[in-house]
Amino acid sequence: MTYFAGEYDVAVIGAGHAGIEAALAAARLGCHTAVFTINMDAVGNCPCNPSIGGTAKGHLVRELDALGGEMGKTADACFLQSRMLNRGKGPAVHSLRAQIDRRKYSGVMKHKLELQDELELRQAEIISIERADGGWLLTTQMLAQYLCKTVVVATGTYLGGRIYVGEVSYESGPDGMFPATKLALSLKDLGLPLRRFKTGTPARILRRSIDFSDLEVQKGDEPPQPFSYETESLGDNKVDCHISWTNDRTKAVILKNIHRSPLYAGKIEGVGPRYCPSFEDKVMRFSDKPRHQLFIEPCGENTEEMYMQGMSSSLPEEVQLEFYRTIKGLEHCVMMRPAYAIEYDCVDPTAMGPTLEFKDFPGLYGAGQFNGSSGYEEAAVQGFVAGVNAALKVLNREPLVLTRDSSYIGTLIDDLVTKGANEPYRMMTSRSEYRLILRQDNADERLTETGHRLGLISEARYQKFLKKQELKRAEIKRLKTTTVSPGDALNEMLVSRETSEITTGVRLIDLLKRPQLSYDDLKPFDPTRPELEPNLFEQVEIEIKYEGYIQKQLKQVEQMKKLESKRLPTDHDYKQITGLRLEAQEKLNKIKPLNIGQASRISGVSPADVSVLLIWLAAQKGNNHESN
Question: Cis omega (within 30 of 0) on the bond before 223?
Fold first, then answer.
């Protein structure tokens, strides 16, 4: 028999990366908040790779930190090794990635939830959610009921979770936890458009069973860079990673046993991530490739578990061991945890608006893998946006909507709610049309103001940010007004960098614009240079070198803003608009875009359809003007 256990402003279902950020943000905004988790030992768990960041994902973590989120600070506190990826490419794709101690990360995040005012962390499985006067009624497995004004669903891969290892299949969440089976049924009964996705994880191998003597060593950057703008120093890298390669024998084991893969046997109905396939899928899809890279990464300082990055699998346990042992360094490896695939329920994200609130279910929000995305970082930023908006709704404040030109977070959410996800969505730099202005180095410049306005960036941190911006402007002014004279040492350096000598005085800014030269090259010839933090020098140099491209991108932003300013009604039947193609009518009625800009990004809405919408919108305004 059920009993009433309490009331909350915001309830968060799930305490993974999305749930943590949602709960902390809501509580910090002053809302009485609860976060429910099936097992408190799984708070902040990293069931897959023991790392935070990566290509485009590092951008998300930096942006989240600039807004007042927690992932970046915790990753810094638990870091083992830090590397800036894509250094050999342009600054738009430079992305920070850190190996972390996964158990320490989980413990630090759990403690932060426990210490947060207005926040209660509860071990309880939510088995049903239903509408109620004043919000939503949540029921736990123990039959306790909670009345909540708003709810954020952040169930990760637990919702209807099912594990696959070869011929073996059973209901489970990640890492042997219970699945959320009853909640999946409740959400279906509620009317949410659920579907099945799948993902997977590699085996964990005993460190002392690996022969590292002939493997390529992958060291961290010196000095390592932190994610958080509040972290002053990380100290030294603590671990090395290693690289090995598969071979023909590895491939032969896969081909011999491919019929035993549940993916190829037709047992898995969920759609998997195209950009992070299982190893057997790699072998089948890229049959011409003679080998595949394997990264061997430590899971923590106080564990002997090593993570096999790039080798997820759902093949039987004995087959996994057989193909791992064909790889150099792993010939005698001991498998501590087998790889597995997990299938789970998630929602069609086009059922939500840009605040991550469901259009047909006011006060109900979704975040993370529940929304069809993949990855810790994608989950965390969605959790933050959903938690902030749930709180702002309770507080009767304007919602937070991040635009595509403001952030990768805005790009991710716009992609999900406008285009949907027919496979687990992974953030990539190529998904942004504005990636040169959405760099990881300037995330604070783009979003700290927003975080402060929300109340999630402290006044002290905000004043420090304003001081940094003042120093940046002063440095650019100094470069424009400081001239260096020609000299033998300077010209010798210029020739060594394969750029032309100077014969008259030249402004520092003009020298820095040369692609062959860097700030460090000019340092010996720049006696008035101030002592500034490296990140600030980096921003200045990028903005000077890429000024023309940045200006071009800013013009594109202005053009899109003109379309974004043309608001569309959210209650109109697009079948009534003459000239729209049938597919466009259906898609527009499903998505209910907020403006012409969003409408133009819907798959199935052509430029011709956008023209029809513009003409119709102008006619509507004309009719309204005449009627007035």
Answer: yes
Closest CA to 298 of 239, 381, 348, 248: 239
Each residue's pLDDT tens digit, 188-197: 999 999 999 9
- In this predicted model, what pLDDT tens digit does every residue of 173-229 receive, in sequence order? 999 999 999 999 999 999 999 999 999 999 999 999 999 999 999 999 999 999 999
How many other CB atoms are there within 10 angstroms of residue 457's CB atom? 23
Q: CA-CA distance, 563 to 302, in Å (whole number)?
A: 54
Cβ contact 289:89 at 8 Å: no
Report which of 489, 469, 32 is spatially closest to residue 229, judged by C-alpha positions: 469
**What Å distances lie between residue 515 and 78, 83, 504, 521, CA to CA?**
37, 24, 20, 12
380: its two tokens: 């965390």
Q: 376-394 vs 57-67: helix axis angle to the nearest 10?
A: 30
3-state secondary structure of 403: coil
Which two three-digit tokens encode residue 499?
């750029």
What's the gap between Cα 615 and its chain centre?
Answer: 37
Q: Is the pLDDT of residue 70 over 60?
A: yes
**Cα 369 to Cα 349, 424, 425, distances in angstroms:** 10, 8, 9
The C-alpha torsion from 113 through 119 and 125 to 131, rounded to 10°, is: -140
CA distances from 234 to 217, 221, 227, 229, 595 (A): 21, 11, 10, 12, 44
Which pairing describes strands 483-484 and 162-165: parallel, antiparallel, or unpaired? unpaired
pLDDT in tens, 324-350: 999 999 999 999 999 999 999 999 999
User: Residues 101-126: what's their mean pLDDT?
Assistant: 98
